[in-house]
Amino acid sequence: MAGTVDYVRKTLESSYALIKANAQEMFIALLKLNAMQVLVAAVMLIVIAAAAIALVGASLADIVSTGAMPQAFMSNLAVAIFIIVPVFVISILLTSAIKSVGFNIIENIARGKSTDLLGQARKNFWPIVKLEVTMWGIMLLLAAPVLLSALVGGLAVCIFMLLSVIACVLFGFFVQFSTLEVVLSGRRTVDALKASAALVRGSLLGVLLIDVLIVAAAMAVSVVTSAAQAVLRLVLQVFSAGGTAGTAVGFAIYLIGMALVSVAIGAAIQTITLPMTYNFWKGKKG
C-alpha cells in the first residue's frame, strides 16, 4: 500500500514538473489536435445532414403535408443510411487516430522533440483502427447476452444488462493503456491489450488511484465549461429577444462559442491528465 501511494506521488511530481516546464507548448499542440477532431466532426455532420436532406427531406415533407408515404421514401432512406453509417464510422476512427497523437505529443515534449500532428495521425491511423475495431468487437460480444435475454424478456433482461455493463466497464479498465502500447511501444493489437491488462493487474490499486486523480482533475477544469455555457446561453437569450433573425444569430454564436470552448477546455484538461497517464505508464514500463 505504502509503495503504491509513493509511486503515485512520484508520478504526480514528475507530471507536475513536465507540465510546469512545458505547459504552453503542450497546450498549443493539444489545442491544434482538438481543433482537428472538431473539424472532422463538423465535416461528418455536414455530410450526414446533406445526405439526409437530399435523400429523405423531400419525402418527409410529403408525409407531413399529405399524410401518405411516398413510394421512394424507403429506398431513399436505405441509401441515406448506406451513406451515413460509413461516414459516421470513418469519422469516429479518424477522431480516434487524431486523439491518440496526444500521447506522442507528451512523449516528444518529454524528450525535447516536436510533433508533426498530421504525419503522426497518419502513422497512427491503421494501428489505432485495428485496436478500435477489436475493442468494439469485444464490447459487442460482452453485450450479446443482453440481446439474447431480450428474447426471454422479464427480469433476465435487467440481470444480463447489469452483467454486460459491469463486464464492459472492467474490460475498459484493464485495457486503458492499450493506446499507449500501440502508439508508443509499437505493439500489435492483441499484444497491446495483453500488455495493458498485465500492467493493470500488476498495479491495481495504483491504477485506481491515478484514475480517480485524473477524473478529479478533469472535473475541476471542466467547471470552466459550465461557466462558459452559462455566458453563451445568456448571449442566446439576448439575441432571441430580437425575433427570428436575432435567434438565428444568437444560436450561431452559441454553437461556435461552444465549439471553441470545447476545444480550449479539452486541451486544458489533456495538458493536465495526459502527462499523468503517460508518466504512470512510462514508470511501470521502466
Structure characterization notes:
This protein has 286 residues and is mainly alpha-helical. The protein has three domains: 18-115, no CATH class; 135-202; 203-286. 91% of the residues lie in helices and 0% in strands. It has eight helices and no strands. It has helices at 2-66, 73-110, 117-152, 155-174, 178-183, 189-202, 204-240, 243-285. The longest helix is centred in the first third of the chain and has 65 residues, at 2-66. It is globular, with a radius of gyration of 23 Å. The model has no long low-confidence stretch (mean pLDDT 85).
Report a brief summary of the structure:
The protein is mainly alpha-helical and about 290 residues long. The chain has eight helices and no strands.
The amount of beta strand, in percent, is under 5%
Order of helices and strands: HHHHHHHH
Count, helices: 8
Number of strands: 0
- Overall 3D form: globular
**Tally of separate domains:** 3
The structural class is mainly alpha
What would the average pLDDT be, to the nearest integer? 85
Amount of helix? over 70%
Unreliable stretches: none
Straight-line distance between termini: 20 Å
Q: What Rg, in angstroms, do the CA atoms define?
A: 23 Å
* Biggest sheet record: none
